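Priority: low. Protein: Peptidase M16. Input follows.
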Amino acid sequence: MLISPAPTRRFLHTLLPACAVAAALLLSPAGAIAQDSATAASQGKNDSWLYVGSDIPRDTAWQFGELPNGVRYAVRNNGVPPGQVSIRVRMDVGSMFETEEERGYAHLLEHLTFRGSEHIPDGEAKRIWQRFGVTFGSDSNAQTTPTQTVYQLDLPSVTAVNLDESMKLLSGMVREPRISELAVAAERGVVQSELRESDGPQKRIADASSAHLFAGLLLGDRSPIGTVASLGKASATSVAAFHQRWYRPERALVVIVGDGSTDDFARLVEKYYGDWRGNGANPPQPDFGKPDPKAPEARVIVEPNQPPALTLAMVRPWKKRIDTVENTRRLYLEFIAQALVNRRLENRARSGGSYLVAEVGQEYVSRSVDVTTAQIVPLSDWKVALADVRGVIADAIKTPPSQADIDREANEIEAFLRKDLENARNEPGARLADDMVRAVDIQEVVTSPQGQVDMFAAIRASATPQVMLDTSRAVFSAPITRVVLTSPTPIGGGDGALLAALKAPATLRDDRLTAGSTDFKKFPAIGTPGTIASTTLVPGLRAERIEFANGVTALVSNNKVEPGKVRVNVRFGTGNRSVAADAPNLLWTGDYALTASGVGPWGQNEIDQVTNGRQIQLNFAIDDDAFELSAESNPADIADQLRLIAGKLAFPRWDAAPVDRIRVGYLTGYDLNDATPNAVLDRNLRGWLTGNDRRWAAPDRAAIEALTPATFRAFWEPRLASGPIEVQIFGDLASVDYRRILAETLGALAPRKEIAPAGGKRVAFAKPAATPQLAYHRGERGQAAAMTAWPTSGGIATPRDARGLEVLAAVFNDRLFDRLRAEQGASYGPVVDSHWPTGFDSGGYLLVGSLLAPKDVNRFYGIARDIAADLVANPVTADELARNAGPIREQVARASTGNVYWMFLLEGATRDPRVAANALSIEQDIASVTAADVQRLAKQYLTPRRQWSLAILPKGMTLTEAAALDVAVTPAAGAR
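Result:
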């Protein structure tokens, strides 16, 4: 059965701040999921094509069917977000269905399909969907994997007319794509650009590792991206033949989930797919191969400037199984077995082991192989790191875990499943559709969240120490064991030395965690409960502002948007503004080390222990005007959640190990910083755009090496202790006395010191230049990147201009896409972005960029210059404005039904009433953007004298040399 396991802990994870495109519900709760007559009539039955042979309880919200020609469908009513319908068309064909000469054809055909069909002009489908409010790349997209090709469409503001038209367009594209020589040539260029842009050391390592670990399997050499040779030979005739062979009704699945009748959805499937006929007999499934036991066991991959890394793999043949309750039991027990080992591995890394990070995972990959892998980043001696990880695994298959250990991991899974159950009515239709497609691809079934909870309750009861020992032996044993070592330099003895390390006896590491009795009753009191100074309702919002005597302010929204869920965001201090633009800082260390360094009497292990099985988190982020501690909790845990956050501010702990770990982590990956153009951009772009402002410029090696626990504490301790505190609590608070909880936690803090921010409210912008500045990478000679940007502004005084610039960026992006990608195939993913900070009065910019071949850099600048000049000289047409403003309005309309959206927009609202006013007017501000506004903003900002440009070229190359260069791309892995 399709399982959504509890998330694993990953070192140096990226904390994504709340953004205005999240989907949940705030101002008006979504209606309960309705069941029409067809769904209700099917309740209690388990005879659909998905559940054949399975005894897993059926999710009765789905209606299934199969047309006489073999097209299968699954449809479901769902009102999240309101008015949206998600459509997925899955074709049972991927890269492992290709011959050697056809490598990359499944992916190339996916691109061709989305250009249009024989019944509409080339590229017109994109424009039609834009008029329906669809954003290309997010609302409409496609994906090719080794086993399937999936077309995705999320249609907002559905009407009977636009849903019918969308089904007609999509079915026409899948059944009869426009496969002309002109279209093949254009999309071949796009795919080759994608291949070129994805090339680099990481792809070379991935390709070589796959070939070694999956020897004997097509999986080892059938990357969806294809090869230069096969793509170069692709023609309209050969691609059409591939389409005719594999795109057949009996290989199609149509999934529709959304705000509508399942009977209507089913009728649309029959209307647009019912008369589809295949040519000839349905070809048999390809032989995906079997793991080759005679292939070499050890492989050393030498890749300069890459950190040492190990992959240990236990490889088993894939077995086709009927998905039953017993199969689900096996899957959950396997997940617990992995979690037991991962907790031990992480504990060793936290306490200073031989590796920076190590993690095991077991997967059933592409219906080809059942594999358990251990990914290891050694600190110094790779042999010691490999031996230590093997020792933990060896102990796991020799000695049964304690029942306390098992319960600890089962608690995490159960909490995750119960959270899904509580939030089931708010599950977005797009996710439900994707889950159905994924289940069909891996030949499993789905059940309801309640079914998941009920089955797991029975499964965990059977998870005894002996059962888990048997499961661990199955997960960590295999007929074939292989290992890959990536090294920046050749190692003595090569593959033989690696093989000897693999064959050496494993040293048992019996260092299991001891059960503790820590609980929040032992947590020190924050202080004397605070008193409320004032409470006021916020006009236009279902929220109240609470101010405490100690100066803490809170914005609380008690709503049923997400039943059983409470979101918390505590904003304190002044964020990026706490540091001067030219002063050294340690802002870059906070993401991991600040939360991992502990709270009061507890280190990270004790925090894990006390929060086990509960919805209590401690996430950290830095905003322009505040630091943030955030969490997703529930009514039962919100008191302890706020106690933990308040404790982090009242009595932070300063464990040294997380600081040492982040320093080593940064140094380990430091040489990756210029391995590709993308790596150079990821590291340096924000610093470049702000004139090398040190708050956004990446730390250099000397700064990283100088980091110590003492300097870390000296930087962060005053920032945790000073500056205003604003609390946001949004969610299901009907059963919670949130005023009392706030008074006992954040309201009980001592009054905070008010320290003037060291950084002002102005942010510099890069100095304009007549010719592009140059930066360099050490990667492939065929890779480059080009960026150009204009400074705009920032702040909350002119919100309509911020919205107008979003529309201007969308228009610019649409034109750039058409010219640079669709027409010329020079880039896979050009991007235009408008950044408008609210914590500063300046610092905004409109950024245009793309990854390219060096020879296309000057062409990029010419196209960008032409687009900017035209936007300045001429107003956009009414149709172009509607096609680009409409999708933005739809994104806002969908997101505005969610707590995440409102929390994001209302940051700072307790201190500045303009914040709430701007949040309430955002939809109207976007709707009121006119062609004259777009042109006015273009004239105001897109002036050549203020323009900054930068090109990233291969090391040692000039722009003149780049213009004359025509480097062939090298083979690389990747998928759209």
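Residues 5-46, 967-976 have pLDDT under 50 and may be disordered. Residues 325-350 form the longest helix (26 residues).
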